[in-house]
Specification:
- The complex is a heterodimer of chains A (about 160) and B (about 575).
- Chain A is an alpha+beta fold.
- In chain A, about 30% of the residues lie in helices and about 40% in strands.
- Chain A has helices at about 15-25, 55-65, 100-105, 130-140, 155-160; strands at about 1-10, 30-35, 45-50, 70-75, 80-90, 110-115, 120-125, 145-150, 150-155.
- In chain A, the strands form 2 sheets. In chain A, strands 5, 6, 7, 8 and 9 form a 5-stranded antiparallel β-sheet that branches. A 4-stranded antiparallel β-sheet of chain A has the order 2-3-1-4, with helices on one face.
- Chain A is elongated, with a radius of gyration of 19 Å.
- Chain A starts with a strand and ends with a helix.
- Chain B has about 575 residues and is an alpha/beta fold.
- Chain B has a 6-stranded parallel β-sheet with strand order 3-2-4-5-7-6. A 6-stranded parallel β-sheet of chain B has the order 15-14-16-17-19-18, with helices on both faces. A 5-stranded parallel β-sheet of chain B has the order 10-9-11-12-13, sandwiched between helices.
- Classes of the chains: A alpha+beta (about 160), B alpha/beta (about 575).
- The interface of A and B includes residues 14, 18, 21, 69 and 71 of A.
- The complex binds thiamine diphosphate (TPP).
- Thiamine diphosphate binds next to helix 17 and helix 20 of chain B.
């Protein structure tokens, strides 16, 4: 079962290490991790995706709460949250097949951001399943390199207001 | 109002403002500015041990006895890394402590400079929190936060790493009025609805049992615990960490549960219908096989640390809060409801077990039985103001069984980490914290050699601690496991009773040294040593191959104990089938 934990922390040196080492010590594998400042510059949000059963996640959430620099933790339920990820694909693209790749990018509302002699670089954002579908299609052409940001997520508006 | 001073002076001033009077310190290069500033303090007395590990254990003993945080200062690199066992020990046993490590200058931080170690990184999993101070302006606030964090909620050690450029820098010192820790809000008051429900469960239970640990001592809740136990006539089992939370000479006290608990204690836990767990963490040395631990009971778990609740054992009624406050709340609710004790039959059943399966050992008139030695210590010191510390091993378990602690904060033993070498430096710290008490370290001949260099510290500082070495010439607890589970193959567990010669060692340090091997002379020798003016070590030659019983085999259910059948020879006490079952 995948859990998306949104952890609001004080923006201080060493906080990310404290958070991730808790997962490492308990043998959790982190599927994805994204960190950045929030609307309040003294706070950062860490979004962590882990695959684990509910009970260990509950225990690790309690342990996270014990960290002095952790302010708030949400275990975001897919139905009550929105999430996005950004991916860059560098895809093999011989001149005669470029149009196919561009077409696929258009279907997914992705952007071509670099054109090389034998490659195209495409920027895509979206939910994981959409990005996965793109990746599967591009694999047919050969993916030279791929980079993803890790998922970021927020609870849906209705919940807060 | 600000005052111009150096970072080192600010650090010392902050300690003074925190009320620190004793610091355990060991100097070195980058710590010198701070030690220099300490030289001027009329308030902070510095004790110089002979090893940084001992400094931390001494601070730990001091904290356990006084309830005040232990304070340590060491240099960078090896000074800092030598604190690790002490920190891990204090972290596992939730002991409040603030440890300062000096650090190389920030200009060379991260370059493998001479005596640099990433101590905040290394100690991340064994501190409650830690700081690397980057600016002298942050020092005072950091120290205030550290003392607050170390001593509140679930207590624990906090580390502050101070680069030498920070301690040398001049700046304007201001003592902060407030601390601001938005992410730190321990839940101290239990939820009233849960307290009411827990009280209702207690009022209707027929076979309730209090299972209490270090959390009661940390919260200072022993009075409330006694009120609750007496009001509802509840039997009380105290863990190794909880010894002293409830007087062990009280008729409701049923001793220590777990691997080396008495049979009657473990039977009671196995049979209880309501386990009231207070400030405990269901450690595997207590529970044995979890599925069989208090399997018939509903469970109330009171703890200030929400992460402990449900961690090992499923709980029916959790109450997050400080033990003292929650216990007081329970007493108030039960009084309001005019609840009557209904445990007479239950206490009778436990007393039957107590009569049938007492702790016991075979008496011997030729040689000193280790249990007899500890019983003797108990008998001749029970009416004195005393503190008992222990090392780790068989002697520790016998001390748990035969030393009856009746006053809170008079017992120091390494619980969670099980650190050999803890008891003696802890005794030194305890003696500093309780100068008018007789402080006795109950030691094994293995453990005492892990920090015996501290004999100098005790001698030079006039600390009259007594060390009783139960000298069996073995790493006894290891030998016991090898006897029981490894076919008597004593691989690397044999020491030598005559080496070192503890009496000569005493002489070398200016201590009194005694040796006794005749049971008839044991009491007189111990009395003489305990009444002697300064520190004393007593080399008690004990029966070499005695085992601690009863014993729950590791992973076994706690009502299935090896040994402990009155009068039977040891070989009859062992249930071979059970051993096989657990190990194969
Ligand atoms: C620092 C450390 N190293 C190793 C152990 C493992 N250990 C547990 S008990 C024990 C033997 C202790 O021997 P001794 O101090 O002579 O006490 P005895 O069991 O003989 O009473 C050992 C080696 C430990 N607990 N701590």
């Amino acid at each position: 079962m995948k859990h998306t934990l949104s952890v609001l922390v004080e923006n201080r040196a060493g906080v990310l290490t404290r958070v991730t080492s808790l997962f490492a010590r308990r043998g959790f594998n982190i599927d994805s991790l994204a960190v950045g400042p929030t609307e309040d510059p003294t706070l950062s949000r860490i979004t962590i995706v882990v695959s684990a059963e509910d009970t260990p996640v509950e225990q690790i959430t309690k342990q996270l709460h014990k960290l002095i620099n952790v302010i708030k933790i949400q275990d975001l339920h897919p139905a009550e949250s929105i999430d996005r990820e950004l991916v860059l694909f560098k895809v093999n693209a011989a001149p005669e097949r470029r149009h196919e790749i561009i077409e696929i990018a258009n279907v997914f509302r992705a952007k071509i951001i670099d054109v090389g002699r034998n490659s195209l670089t495409i920027e895509a954002t979206g939910a994981s399943d959409k990005l996965q579908a793109m990746e599967d299609l591009f694999r047919g052409y050969g993916i030279k390199e791929l980079a993803r940001t890790g998922k970021i997520a927020l609870s849906r508006g209705s919940r807060d207001s | 109002m600000s005052e111009r001073m150096t970072g080192a002076q600010a650090l010392v001033r902050s300690l003074e403002l925190e009320g620190v009077t004793t610091l355990f310190g060991y100097p070195g290069g980058v710590a010198l500015p701070i030690f220099d500033a300490l030289y001027d303090s009329a308030q902070v007395h510095v004790l110089l041990p002979r090893h940084e590990q001992a400094a931390v254990h001494a601070a730990d003993g001091y904290a356990r006895v006084t309830g005040k945080p232990g304070v340590v200062l060491v240099t960078s690199g090896p000074g800092a890394t030598n604190t690790i066992t002490g920190l891990a020990n204090a972290y596992m046993d939730s002991v409040p402590m603030v440890v300062f490590t000096a650090q190389v200058a920030q200009s060379v931080l991260g370059t493998d400079a001479f005596q640099e170690s990433d101590i905040t990184g290394i100690t991340l999993p064994i501190t409650k929190h830690s700081y690397l101070v980057r600016n002298p302006d942050d020092l005072a606030e950091t120290i205030r936060e550290a003392f607050l964090i170390a001593t509140t909620g679930r207590p624990g050690p906090v580390l502050i790493d101070v680069p030498v450029d920070v301690s040398k820098a001049e700046f304007d010192f201001v003592w902060p009025e407030h601390v601001n820790l938005p992410g730190y809000k321990p839940t101290v008051r239990g939820h009233i609805k849960q307290i009411k429900q827990a009280a209702a469960l207690i009022a209707e239970a027929r076979k309730p049992l209090l299972y209490v640990g270090g959390g009661v001592l940390a919260s200072g809740g022993w009075k409330e615990l006694k009120e609750l136990a007496e009001l509802m006539q509840l039997p009380v089992a105290t863990t190794l960490m909880g010894k002293g939370a409830f007087p062990e000479d009280h008729y409701l006290s049923i001793g220590m549960p777990g691997m080396h608990g008495a049979k009657y204690t473990n039977f009671a836990i196995t049979d209880t219908d309501l386990l009231i767990a207070v400030g405990v963490r269901f450690d595997d040395r207590v529970t044995g096989k979890l599925s069989a631990f208090a399997a018939k009971a509903r469970v109330i778990h009171i703890d200030v640390d929400p992460a402990e609740i449900g961690k090992n054992k499923t709980v029916d009624m959790p109450v997050v809060g400080d033990a003292k406050q929650v216990l007081a709340g329970l007493v108030a609710e039960l009084r309001k409801a005019d609840a009557e004790p209904r445990t007479e039959g239950w206490m009778n059943a436990i007393d039957d077990w107590r009569r049938q399966f007492p702790l016991h050992y075979l008496h011997n008139t030729e040689e000193i039985m280790p249990e007899f030695a500890i019983e003797t210590i108990q008998r001749i010191t029970r009416d004195r103001k005393r503190v008992i510390t222990t090392e780790v091993g068989q002697h520790q378990m016998w001390a748990c069984q035969y030393i009856h602690v009746t006053e809170p904060r008079t017992w120091c033993s390494s619980g969670g980490l099980g650190t050999m070498g803890f008891g003696f430096p802890a005794a030194i710290g305890a003696q500093l914290g309780a100068p008018d008490h007789l402080v006795i370290d109950i030691a094994g001949d293995g453990s005492i050699q892990m920090n015996s260099q501290e004999m100098a510290t005790a001698a030079i500082n006039g600390l009259p601690v007594k060390v009783v070495v139960l000298n069996n010439g073995y790493l006894g607890m290891v030998r016991q496991w090898q006897e029981l589970f490894y076919g008597h193959r004593y691989s690397s567990s044999t020491l030598a009773q005559d080496c070192p010669d503890f009496v000569k060692l005493a002489d070398a340090y200016g201590w009194k040294g005694y040796r006794v091997s005749d049971p008839a002379l044991l009491e007189a020798t111990l009395r003489e040593a305990f009444d002697a003016e300064g520190p004393a070590i007593i080399d008690v030659r004990v029966v070499r191959e005695e085992c601690v019983y009863p014993m729950v085999a590791p992973g076994g259910s706690i009502d299935e104990m090896l040994g402990g059948v009155p009068g039977g020879p040891v070989s009859d006490m062992l249930d071979d089938d059970l051993i096989k079952e657990v190990w194969e």
